[in-house]
Specification:
The protein is rod-shaped. The protein is built from one helix and no strands. By secondary structure, it is mainly α.
Length: 45
């Protein structure tokens, strides 16, 4: 029982970490795209 619980905990932590990394990547990509768009609109009159 103890081994199963520890394995479940490791799997849950791994899933949470992967989800956080994917979320950060998505946010970074969105900010990058919006930043490029804002920069382009600001640079071009």
């Amino acid at each position: 029982m103890k081994e199963d619980k520890s394995q479940q905990r490791i799997i849950i932590i791994a899933v949470v970490v992967i989800a956080l990394i994917l979320f950060c990547c998505l946010l970074g990509a969105l900010f990058f795209i919006f930043g490029l768009g804002a920069g382009a609109t600001v640079i071009t009159p």
